[in-house]
Amino acid sequence: MKFSVDTHAHTIASTHAYSTVHEYFSIAKTKGIKLFAITDHGPDMADAPHFWHFVNMRVLPRIVDGVGMLRGIEANIKNDLGEIDFYGSYLTDLDIVLAGFHEPVFPPSSQEAHTQALINCIESGHVDIITHPGNPSYPIDIKRVAKAAAEHNVALEINNSSFLTSRKGSLANCTDIASAVKHAGGLLVMGSDSHVAFSLGGFEKCIEVIDAVDFPIERLLNRSPEALLSFLTARGHTNLDEYAELIDSP
Predict the structure, then answer these.
(1) Domain-by-domain residue ranges, the chain?
(2) In terms of CATH architecture, what is 5-243?
(3) For the whole model, what pTM was predicted?
């Protein structure tokens, strides 16, 4: 199956990434990707864009040449309370909110601290997708997190970059996460975690994990633009009307 949706990509606004918004649109068109999200690192990260970067995403077009782009963030989970580094009414201006652990903001601690931080973040209602929860540097109680995510309609990510360039050793955890989410009745999403446009839509390793546990395609958000947009609408995002043409297109 061809997956035409990618929820996780970084631009040169995160200075350890190497592509512009314009380049992402161009590559997406070439690859047949219909909808992707720009999710630069939240402002507490060492080389992240300023808070205003996310506030001013309103100037970005949502659709260019038939390709849709969601205005998003990969926020940092800051503490055991599950707080993130973007807040208040500003969150409602974004189309999609991802959040995850990053060492410069939340140094690895104990399994219980990581688990509670994720559950609190999930229960906060502020975050749509938890990024790279299979990171072996942050062991978690996978079944508890999967249960909380299913109960609160939050998707857990299988991150392709974790198998290629970062977070080595994630495979076993990600397989267990996919299985736990399957049995909890929750949602998964595959993210390329692209830091250069060429890897946008790259899910080859994620697909191996999905296939290994026979995860139901109807609960995988990458299956279509409509699936992701319906999920985001159900989560309370109200600014998605401009993407209607992506649902109607062949």
Answers:
(1) 5-243
(2) Alpha-Beta Barrel (3.20)
(3) 0.97
